[in-house]
Specification:
Number of strands: 18
Radius of gyration: 18 Å
Distance between the termini: 15 Å
CATH class of the largest domain: Alpha Beta
Structural class: alpha+beta
CATH superfamily of the largest domain: Diaminopimelate Epimerase, Chain A, domain 1
Number of helices: 4
Helix content: 10-25%
CATH topology of the largest domain: Diaminopimelate Epimerase, Chain A, domain 1
Strand content: 35-45%
Shape: globular
Length: 293
């Protein structure tokens, strides 16, 4: 079974072309096997590029633990790159079907291949019941969240998947034996205030136009980037009065440009998409009709 390894700002996934090849019979189990960084390919999860009756392609995303997620902003950029670079659809603007609905992506080309992608992630979902969270407010802004003996100030946003944004001190950005993100991330992800679990983002504000963030991703743990999470951080910054509607987010895997537009209420995200390598996964039940590039 042919696979392609790609990443957006270090948020890496294994991609399967299910337009030219049959889909795997058990994508959840396959994601767990492929994602293992010691015994598999190593990734934050598995993304299937599927045919769509509503768009140029459809994206299905599975976390490293096998759970299926609604959306992945970094993964969506890579899907768009694959669709264009591999000749599935050669248009500068693509429509990709996701668990969030059909989203529009604009492509920047270098030497005939996609180098950067701008994604319209749609309008943020701000009603607590739809995020979902039991924290008070529509949405919860600067709400108290007590976890692991520590009380955080939490702002919640959904970008088609649930996010909680926490403004924290420098101790969450220091390397050392005690990683505070690894300590609190899993506790917050599974806290009872989040009935479908949650993506957790720890944020330091430098100015109204610049932030640094680290992420504990639902179902995958610490990741180098989270595209929908960066969008949620942009929205949370405006809701809390900490940042403007345009912000540069520094993530461990690189930078993302965010804009929460006043004209259409949608969040736009711009960043790179990179193809790393391709290979064959030893699955005797699946074949591949792809040719080598």
């Amino acid at each position: 079974m042919r696979f392609t390894k790609m990443h957006g700002n270090g948020n890496d996934y294994v991609y399967l072309d299910c337009i030219r090849n049959p889909p795997p019979p058990d994508p959840a189990a396959l994601s767990r096997a492929m994602s293992d960084r010691h015994f598999g390919i190593g990734s934050d999860g598995l993304i299937l590029i599927c045919p769509s009756e509503r768009a140029d392609a459809r994206m299905r995303m599975f976390n490293a633990d096998g759970s299926e997620s609604e959306m992945c902003g970094n993964g969506l950029r890579c899907v768009a790159k694959y669709v264009y670079d591999h000749g599935i659809c050669r248009k500068p603007r693509l429509a990709i079907e996701t668990g969030r609905g059909v989203l529009t992506v604009d492509l920047e080309l270098t030497a005939g291949r996609v180098s950067r992608v701008t994604v319209n992630l749609g309008e943020p979902i701000l009603k607590s019941a739809l995020i979902p969270t039991t924290l008070p407010g529509d949405p919860p802004v600067n709400a108290c969240l007590a976890v692991g003996g520590t009380t955080f100030t939490a702002t919640c946003v959904s970008m088609g998947n649930p996010h909680v944004v926490l403004y924290v001190g420098d101790e969450f950005f220091r390397s050392g034996e005690r990683d505070r993100v690894a300590e609190f991330g899993p506790l917050i992800e599974t806290a009872p205030e989040f009935p479908r679990r949650v993506n957790v983002h720890f944020v330091k504000v430098h100015s109204p136009s610049e932030v640094t963030m680290r992420t504990w991703e639902r179902g995958s743990g610490i990741t180098l980037a989270c595209g929908t999470g960066a969008a949620a951080v942009c929205v949370a910054g405006v809701l809390t009065g900490r940042t403007a509607r345009r912000v540069l987010a520094h993530l461990p895997g690189g930078d993302l440009e965010l804009h929460w537009s006043q004209s259409d209420n949608c969040v736009y995200k711009t960043g790179p998409a990179t193809e790393v390598f391709w290979g064959e996964w030893p699955d005797p039940t699946a074949g591949s009709r792809d040719e080598d590039p």
